[in-house]
Design brief:
CATH topology of the largest domain: Rossmann fold
Radius of gyration: 19 Å
Helix content: 40-55%
Strand order of the largest sheet: 2-1-3-4-5
Distance between the termini: 25 Å
Shape: elongated
CATH class of the largest domain: Alpha Beta
Number of domains: 2
Number of helices: 10
Length: 250
């Protein structure tokens, strides 16, 4: 069985790091430990990770400073803080800058394991577009930035197969025999709150379809040719909202 998540643990307390590596590895994750922020940056440069769990107060580089550097190295990488001390200013600063949440030490292992289990089930960006070249190109860009990607060129595919493990769906609105609004309506029957980001190259021609999709809770519409920085920013916003909801439910 392949690992559920690739997790980086960062803590200057080596006993804590070893304990977390052991517990999360037993749960099926692939886990790497780092003893400092600088050590973590070296490891992130060698391989991508699905998320980072880091202590806040560490020598040389605290957890919030590490988060800033990680965003440059792997945009969209979820970072969770942990602390045994009162660090309200740092916690507030981290949350303002996009940290997912904070676990208090001593850690409640059941909550920690439940959070990572939920994260493992909901981390795929699904691209639904009948242009295979577009799917391949966009999928490659997203995978290079650490996202897990699934692609569907047939909008008639079973909605459950398409959406069951999706964190976000990128849905083209223009297919040969069906429009994206009808696909979105099918998704909404089973997944009323799943973030769906619309994509189209026909801004004026599809205006009424776009409006109809937004009325049933499509997140936004982006226009081809896509501006990749805008897309990545939007995906990061959606991802952070999703992860914070998962964190609240831990």
């Amino acid at each position: 069985m392949s690992p559920k998540l690739r997790i980086l643990i960062v803590d200057d307390d080596q006993r804590m790091t070893r304990t977390l590596v052991d517990i999360l590895s037993i749960a099926g994750h692939e886990v790497v430990g780092a003893s400092s922020g600088l050590d973590a940056l070296e490891k992130i440069s060698a391989q991508p990770f699905d998320c980072v769990l880091t202590d806040i107060k560490m020598p040389e580089m605290n957890g919030v400073e590490l988060h800033r550097q990680l965003r440059l190295a792997q945009p969209g990488l979820p970072v969770i803080l942990m602390t045994a001390y009162a660090a309200d200013d740092l916690i507030h600063q981290g949350l303002q800058e996009g940290v997912v949440g904070v676990f208090d030490k001593p850690l409640a292992m059941n909550q920690l394991l439940a959070f990572f289990a939920s994260l493992a089930k909901n981390r795929t960006i699904v691209i639904v577009d009948n242009d295979p070249d577009f799917c391949q190109t966009l999928g490659g860009i997203l995978m290079q930035r650490g996202f897990k990607v699934a692609q569907f060129i047939d909008p008639h595919v079973n909605v459950e197969l398409m959406a069951a493990e999706a964190q976000i769906i990128l849905l083209d609105l223009n297919f040969n025999h069906i429009n994206g609004l009808d696909v979105l309506k099918e998704i909404r029957k089973s997944y009323p709150d799943l973030p769906v980001l619309l994509v189209t190259g026909y801004r004026e021609e599809m205006a009424s379809v776009i409006q109809g999709a937004l009325e049933i809770n499509a997140y936004a519409c982006l226009y081809k040719p896509l501006e990749i920085p805008q897309l990545l920013q939007t995906l990061s916003e959606i991802q952070l909202q999703n992860l914070r909801e998962l964190f609240k439910a831990k």
